[in-house]
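Ticket opened by: R.M.
Priority: normal
Category: complex prediction / small molecule

The reporter submitted a protein together with ZWZ and asked that the result be attached to this ticket for the collaborator who will pick it up next week. Submitted input follows.
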Amino acid sequence: MNDFPQSGRPVPAWFTDAKFGIFVHWGAYSVSAWAEPTGELGVVDPDVWFKHNPYAEWYWNTIRIEGSPAQEHHRTTHGGRPYDEFLDEWKAELFDPADWVELFARAGARYVVPTTKHHDGIALWDAPGTGIRNTVHRGPRRDLIADLAAAVRARDLRFGVYYSGGIDWYAGRRDPVLHEDRMDEGRPHEAAYAAYAHRQVIDLIDRHSPDVLWNDMGWPRAGQADLPELFSYYYATVPEGVVNDRWDNAHADYLTSEYEADRANEWGACWENTRGIGFSFGYNQTEGPEHLLDPADAVRLLVDVVSRGGNLLLNVGPKADGTLPQEQRAVLEGMASWMACHSEAVHATRPLESGSADPHDGDPWVRWTRDERHIYAFVADVPDEAGGRVALKTRPGLLDPDTAERLDGDTVKAEAGPEGIHITSAGLDTPLPTAIRFATR
Ligand SMILES: C[C@@H]1N[C@H](CN)[C@@H](O)[C@H](O)[C@@H]1O
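Result attached by the on-call engineer:
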């Protein structure tokens, strides 16, 4: 069990052992599937962000911003018609949850978190209070959450739910959000909305006993007082459940960061970084290879996050028909190939004690993890001129060079050096990390 100072509640080991989850942003916005590939949250100038929002799931907001390119795109491509019509156009006719989950599992994911209701207020289940504004009564005419939950649990993965408590452009009816400094103006805080949202989260708990409650954008002020009771109900229903940190500081079993934003939350025994494979969570048809992680990027992101004690929640944005975009599938397939011989160096590991071995950026790229019996060195980008030789800086005596083994089975030679261990091995010059296992002394 891992204690965490935010809530003080021990975080179940399943979560800190899981290391890797898959986020799924799927909605009526997957029909429009359009945003400018502006860049990463936390890197793009906040003054530019909302008018040129790279998040395709924010389409309804972006098209309401005067002069935005999205507004022009919506006018020319969709005749400026109401966003709500995209729900009826969304058919999910090729949705095969078992196919998704098999790929997620092979890629090494141990939990899956789909959006149940995003900022557009459209529910992917027959959510109380939504009437026909959901995928059971319109569009797909399917309880997409129940179908995915069944497939996730049939594959022995954990199932969490994303819920946009803080923003709801239907029930909360607000003007478009124009700047992060004015985000609160876009958020409903009234008692009626608070009761509406509370009832829906309770319904998700009752239906699915979700292993993760992933709320987003805070919680309505009128409902804050009822959150302790909601969390108590959740933990009584799901004793091994975990709650994220996006409830307006009401509670957190763990902290989250998103792309390059809130990286200061990446500390302690339990945190999670989330991002899309590209610059968007919802499927964005304008993204090209230059905007996407490749498999090596995704593996390095996972290894870096895990080496520092975190989990990676990597997002896929399915198309409206229910297929995963081929370029996103390719990244997960690449991770699956790597994970086939590297899982032991990732899952259920922990960071090394501070100061015992140095990570290194650049050439070579080095990261470390450990479990009870082994220490793993991840190595990539070894310069050609080094002839496959790498000096791993470690506390003297930390590693036994005679126990060095490459997890992919290739040969590696190791010898004690003045600053730790020298290893010599072929094929470490690629961006894709290779793990070398050492027995702990
Ligand atoms: C996981 C992401 N969270 C942000 C809020 N920070 C959302 O605005 C975004 O659409 C996505 O759901």
